[in-house]
């Protein structure tokens, strides 16, 4: 198996990811909530997720529950305008896939009309299987999401590792297979023990993408801002920042502010000049005297 730094395929599609699962080639996924992040990440990763994590990462909410379809559409449209080569997936926010099949299909279909290639939604119980079947029936590819599902924060009593009890672990394995049977093309496994994620991955034919689920998944996802050290406050154990982006950007912005205050910015290279003939006219101009 050769390991390349950049994704080796011109355009990533669902069949490509399924082929990689069979070949044991690991899949790289990150989030993009705007066009800047999409342009940085797209040449490097295989999947771009417009996640509902935009709520806490960018919009100042405490969790993802207040994120609406309108907010998701806004961020998805910004990312889709960059025409990424990575597979573009949009997250179904809280209450957008719970109430009826019709509403779920309309919301998910709206994401595809805005440029997503697939949707992701959390959970395997309740009516989720019916929803997956209905979406797949409408040619809307679905990525499932099991384990620590942030929209279930109130049920879980916080962001806690899931699947540490036998009943939870076995239910997760059952749910993973039910989602696969219903037509999901991949699953995110979040916040579960390594051995459980590896068991799920080995027993499924579809790829699994882990976040806090150990190295045995078919691929990994981290939030863009977490990889780049741009998030402040509590950092979950599974996050590895590759640069202290917050300090780096803080330093650069402080330098610019200091240059403005000292007069060192802008310099001649950041300024425009008048054509030669006009300089004299400007110099000889006199302010109109105020009428009495
Ligand atoms: O919304 C999000 O950020 C996610 C994670 C899996 C990255 O769903």
Please characterize this protein's 3D structure.
- The protein is 40% helix and 13% strand.
- It has 292 residues and is an alpha/beta fold.
- The protein has an eight-stranded parallel barrel with strand order 1-2-3-4-5-6-7-8, surrounded by seven helices.
- Strand 4 (118-122), helix 6 (128-137) and strand 5 form a beta-alpha-beta unit.
- The chain is elongated, with a radius of gyration of 24 Å.
- The chain starts with 13 loop residues before the first helix and ends in an 8-residue tail after the last helix.
- 3-methyl-2-oxobutanoic acid is lined by residues 31, 49, 51-53, 91, 188, 190, 211, 221, 223.
- 3-methyl-2-oxobutanoic acid binds next to strand 6.
